[in-house]
Design goal:
alpha+beta, Mlu1-box Binding Protein, DNA-binding Domain, five-stranded antiparallel β-sheet, elongated, single chain
C-alpha cells in the first residue's frame, strides 16, 4: 500500500533527455523513484528527512528528496511532490535554482512536437534536437551543416557538471526549414519565394534581374524599405513611414 500519492509524474526536459541518451542514468532514476515511494529520502540530513515524514503524516507540505549516483556524482536528482499531492517532478537541483534565478524556458507545440526554447543573453534559442525531430532531420548531421554562430552549446541551470545541449537561433531554424522535406517546410519555402518576389518588385527589378537580389546594394535598399515598415495594432495594418516634401514624415498604409 502506498504511503502517499505521487499524482502526475513529470520529468524535466533535461532529465528526460539524459534518460534517453544514457541507459544507466535511466536505471538510476527509476531506482531512486522506487526508494522515494518507500520513504527513503536519499541524501537529506536527518532534520529534512523528519520534515518529509511529518509531511506524510499531516499533509499540506511539499515532499523533497535528493539522490546522488554512487559512481558518478554529476548524476544528482531531486524528486519533489507538491503539497496537494497533485504531481511529482524529477529534476536536477540546478534546474530548481535556475527557476529561482529567473532563467526563462518556454515550450511551443508545432505539428504535435514539443519545441523547447531557452532565453540566452536576451534572445530565444531552440533545442536543435527538438527542431530536427519535428523536421525529420538528423541533428548530428545538421550541427555540422549549420554556421557556427547559429548554434550554441548551453546547459540549463547552474550545475557546472550538467550536460550541455546544442541550441539553434532563429536564423538557424530558417536554415533547417530549407533542409527539410516535410510538407509544412516545403510550404514555408514557397511562401518565402513569394515574399522575395514582392521585395524584388519593391526595388524596381524585373524577373530577369532576379540574380541581382544577391548584390549588397540591392539588399541594403530592401533593408532600408523594411526598416520603414511597422505593424499598427490599432488598425490591424502594415504601415510605412514616408518622408514627404519639406522633410515631414507621414504614416501611410503599406501596399
Amino acid at each position: 500500500m502506498e504511503k502517499f500519492k505521487l499524482g502526475q509524474m513529470v520529468a524535466t526536459w533535461n532529465v528526460d533527455h539524459l534518460m534517453k541518451a544514457e541507459k544507466d542514468f535511466k536505471v538510476f532514476v527509476f531506482s531512486c523513484l522506487e526508494r522515494y515511494k518507500k520513504c527513503d529520502w536519499g541524501d537529506l540530513d536527518p532534520e529534512d528527512k523528519a520534515l518529509n515524514d511529518k509531511a506524510i503524516e499531516t499533509g499540506g507540505s511539499r515532499i523533497l528528496a535528493s539522490y546522488t549516483h554512487s559512481q558518478y556524482s554529476a548524476w544528482n536528482i531531486w524528486i519533489i511532490t507538491e503539497w496537494d499531492r497533485s504531481s511529482t517532478t524529477i529534476l536536477f537541483p540546478s534546474e530548481y535554482l535556475a527557476t529561482l534565478k529567473g532563467e526563462k524556458m518556454k515550450i511551443e507545440i508545432w505539428c504535435g512536437h514539443e519545441i523547447h526554447f531557452y532565453e540566452i543573453d536576451g534572445s530565444w534559442w531552440a533545442s536543435l534536437q527538438d527542431i530536427c525531430n519535428a523536421l525529420d532531420l538528423n541533428a548530428d548531421v545538421m550541427i555540422q551543416h549549420l554556421r557556427k554562430d547559429f548554434v550554441r552549446m548551453e546547459k540549463t541551470g547552474t550545475d557546472p557538471l550538467a550536460i550541455s545541449y546544442p541550441w539553434v537561433n532563429e536564423l538557424g531554424i530558417y536554415d533547417l526549414l530549407f533542409e527539410s522535406s516535410k510538407v509544412d517546410a516545403r510550404k514555408f519555402r514557397l511562401w518565402t519565394g513569394t515574399v522575395m518576389q514582392k521585395l524584388r518588385r519593391s526595388v524596381g527589378l524585373d524577373g530577369y534581374e532576379v540574380l541581382k537580389m544577391m548584390e549588397p546594394k540591392v539588399q541594403d535598399e530592401i533593408d532600408r524599405i523594411l526598416d520603414t515598415l511597422y505593424w499598427d495594432e490599432k488598425n490591424g495594418k502594415i504601415m510605412q513611414s514616408v518622408t514627404i516634401a519639406g522633410g515631414d514624415v507621414e504614416q501611410v498604409e503599406y501596399c
